[in-house]
Amino acid sequence: MLKYVAAIDQGTTSTRCILFDHKGNAVSLAQKEHQQIYPRPGWVEHDPIEIWQSTQDVVQEALHKAGIVAGDIAAVGVTNQRETTIVWDRTTGKPYYNAIVWQDTRTKEICDALAKNGGVDRFRKKVGLPLATYFSGPKIKWILDKIPSVRKAAEDGSAIFGNVDSWLIWWLTGGPQGGSHVTDVTNASRTLLMDLKTLDWDTEILRELGVPLQMLPRIVPSADPKSWGSTKVSGVFKDIIPVSGDLGDQQAALVGQACFSAGEAKNTYGTGCFMLLNTGTEIVASESGLLTTLAYRFGASPAVYALEGSIAITGALVQWLRDNLGVIAKSSDIEDLARSVTDNGGIYFVPAFSGLFAPYWRSDARGVIVGMTRYINKGHLARAALEATAYQTREVLEAMKKDAGVALRSLKVDGGMVVNDLLMQFQSDILNVPVVRPKVAETTALGAAYAAGLSVGFWSNLEDLRLNWQVDKTWEPGMPAEQRDMLYKGWLKAVERTFDWVE
Fold first, then answer.
1. How do beta strands 243-248 and 194-195 pair?
2. Which residues make beta-bridge pairs with 183?
3. pTM to 2 decimals?
């Protein structure tokens, strides 16, 4: 029997390849960062060619570290930073422009123009999303409108679009030599272009945005037993391995956390923060600023949906303190610095660097630090930066309670920031629910591995995956209710100060 499933986890700041065994344990991991490109304020780009090269590098490194050959691998799954938009030439593989990252705000004018007729919720009934710079559709329109010759190439079928999953799967399965141009339902649901009910591209919205249908990938299930091709053509794994799993990163974490029942939720703490609540086969429309999105679809089974609260800046705020201000030398230093003080000293840090996502959706907002006095030192700044993540998570959770009528009993957490005990304890305190970290912390990559493995029979069913999930640590709330309410009230007051900054 084949021993492993490989997951390619292409994130906002780095690319990883992780090999998992049948128990869901990570047996080998390789990671490589890629360049963050900031051409103008509010613009964020990546080099797609660099991302593809990094993918090839980490695959080889992961195999080498494990001391195995590609023939030991049953399948390959892909998970990716969602909404990040690439348009490239079908015949050469050359991008027409850098990847426009999900955090990028350059499409504000496009979104505002579309919202003049019907408001920001103009398409929400069909796609579950507001008109916002976050999503892929307006980014595609910007490339078509601004980059010479792209629109003509798109209309004649030579210029094609994909989020990063499509880009990688296309290359993994052959690239210009017949690579599969596909995307799964979860990634398609982040474009602003897919109808949640039909699971197909909406021709009316495509017409409104001026996006040619022929440039879009084929929408497929997240786990596809037919697969979309093998890695033999591209030579990355140097063997014939089916590429059979594809999930957007946050949906992959939901799968990796085994949240397969309606009412189960997880929160991923990475560059941004993303809470997903499984709503089963029911499409729940949000009245509280959340997104209605696809959770996953496995083979021919019915699609499963989710409510999502997306927060733009969480771990990225720690990186900002490190890279822009030099407050810390490495990201892991943030906890010790925050512990050097007993509280936040009365300050709040609202990191609306790219506007505010859920539940506000305010692209006019910008970051603020409020409550400053001469008493404040860098320890208070570090503590306020960590607390900002917990406060934003509570805002999302409050919105989920309103929309779904579900009172969360505990919160499953994952992502890079969950090793921070101070943050996790404060998160439990400010939510007043237990916070639970699983033994396998690499839940995003694990979800992609699960999707690929289910497709080829490496795992038989969802119960197999549930049995793999085990608790590593639980944080219990201990903060008095009066203190919790006072701190949260201060946060909400600080958030109001970010509004209307950009005219």
1. unpaired
2. 219
3. 0.86
